[in-house]
Specification:
Elements (H helix, E strand, L loop, with lengths): L5 E5 L7 H17 L2 E5 L1 H8 L6 H15 L6 E5 L5 H10 L4 H6 L1 H9 L8 H4 L1 H10 L5 E4 L4 H18 L5 H10 L3 H17 L2 H13 L5 H12 L10 E4 L27 H9 L20 H9 L2 H12 L5 H28 L1 H29 L6
Parallel strand pairs: 1-2, 2-3, 4-5
Helix pairs in contact: 3-17, 4-8, 4-18, 8-9, 10-13, 11-12, 12-13, 14-17, 15-17, 17-18
The structure holds tryptophan and iron/sulfur cluster.
Tryptophan binds next to strand 1, helix 8 and strand 4.
Length: about 400
């Protein structure tokens, strides 16, 4: 059975915090058990906005890779690599740039949004306009089926889908396509052949989307089908030519509800974060200096957890008994705020302990990290190379 491939990337923006852990990384760790996963550092994407000061990107990339491993991303299960070390991404980006309408790029909502948000920076560059195109290359080059992303990135995945469709439409014909489809069909057993043809007819004559989905699922289940034939049958099913690039789906990562030190969502731009590998002393200090219910001025004043950001952290880190104790103690002035904060500190440290331990392995032996990433880059280059061979051939650049 063909296993659906998951791919996601992250820009190296500095030490990851607990919001990233609860939002993105826990999800990646879960996914790696169910799918072949590729996770990469989007260092070229960082360059689109940091082109004037690129020197921190390399260190930020290594630090972020350690954070991923610390969070439990397992290099035995997932392939970890760095975008710029797989130059095939740039080749696909270039080739697709030839057929990408300018208007499509200008209409991607993040284009204007980010320019407004980062108003101090000149983002009227060629590279920044191409941000979604580069992301499309990242996705399409691995023929990823599922892309876990936050809501803000969904327009980029939609853009990628449209682009894949346009590409397949433009370059997907092959001489003798119909005969090759017939030859591919002849390799199927009669039951599968019948189901395939039925799905194809229903979709093409009646526009039955479910039939299309059934047909695609069927192709996914047939194990002994060559990659080329799978593309042909997928293309014939949809009524286009050969399907060279696969339209990806996305997996929406629910927005992290992780509260920061001030009760707002944890975010670097609010300066309210605790990093994954924050020192124990710093965690304790940050939590101890958190604001509490402003109406609880004196130790003897009763308070209300509903008005207190510490209570939000109890909801992440404390069990029911502790939460009950905090509620009671706060409302009756039975406990002080420092008492109340201690279990939160303990909870964060407990969560961080295995992360700190895993990170230490790579801090002590940087060569280990380099090896994992080198192997990941090799694997990625190999997969990317397969797609590029098809892309070059489809565009008449095989030179064989
Ligand atoms: N643009 C993504 C972000 O800012 C990062 C990214 C780059 C990405 N290429 C990707 C995510 C490919 C998923 C797939 O979050
Ligand atoms: Fe907040 Fe706890 Fe203090 Fe109440 S006792 S105000 S919940 S820190």
């Amino acid at each position: 059975m063909y296993a659906e491939r998951v791919l996601s990337g992250m820009r190296p923006t500095g030490a990851l915090h607990l919001g990233h852990y609860h939002g993105v990384l826990k999800n990646w760790v879960r996914l790696q058990h169910d799918y072949p996963c590729l996770f990469f550092v989007a260092d070229w994407h960082a360059l689109t906005t940091q082109y004037d000061d690129p020197r921190g990107i390399e260190q930020a990339s290594w630090d972020m890779l350690i954070d991923w491993l610390a969070a439990g991303v397992d290099p035995e299960r997932a392939t970890l690599f760095i975008q710029s070390q797989v130059p095939e991404h740039a080749e696909l980006h270039l080739l697709m740039s030839m057929m990408t309408p300018l208007g499509w790029l200008e209409r991607v909502p993040t284009y204007k949004d980010q320019q407004e948000k980062l108003a101090g920076k000149d983002l009227t560059t060629y590279g920044f306009l191409g941000y979604p195109l580069l992301m499309s290359a990242d996705i399409l080059i691995y023929r990823a089926d599922k892309v876990p992303v936050g809501e803000d990135q969904i327009p980029h995945v939609e853009f990628t889908r449209e682009l894949a469709r346009r590409f397949n439409h433009m370059y997907g014909f092959e001489s003798g396509f119909a005969d090759k489809v017939e030859a591919a069909l002849a390799t199927l057993n009669s039951k599968n052949r019948r189901s395939y043809k039925e799905a194809r007819t229903r979709f093409q004559q009646n526009g039955d989307k479910e039939a299309l989905a059934r047909g695609k699922a069927l192709l996914g289940e047939i194990a002994d089908l060559s990659h080329e034939d799978r593309e042909r049958l997928a293309g014939s099913l949809e009524g286009t030519g050969k399907m060279i690039l696969v339209e990806p789906g996305y997996l929406l990562t629910e927005e992290s509800k992780m509260p920061g030190l001030d009760g707002q969502k944890m975010s670097k731009s609010y300066g309210n974060t605790i990093t994954l590998r924050e020192s124990e002393a710093s965690v304790a200090k940050k939590v101890r200096s958190m604001p509490t219910d402003t109406q609880r001025v004196h130790r003897t004043d009763p308070g209300d957890p509903a008005r207190c950001p510490v209570w939000q952290l109890h909801q992440v880190y404390s069990d029911t008994v502790t939460r009950e104790w905090a509620q009671q103690g706060c409302k009756t002035a039975g406990i002080g705020c420092l008492d109340c904060k201690q279990p939160v500190i303990d909870g964060i440290l407990r969560e961080q302990a295995p992360m700190r331990e895993r990170a230490q392995i790579y801090l002590d032996q940087p060569a280990l990290l380099r090896d994992i990433v080198a192997a990941g880059c090799d694997k990625a280059r190999q997969l990317a190379g397969e797609t590029m061979r098809d892309v070059r051939a489809a565009m008449g650049l095989a030179y064989r």
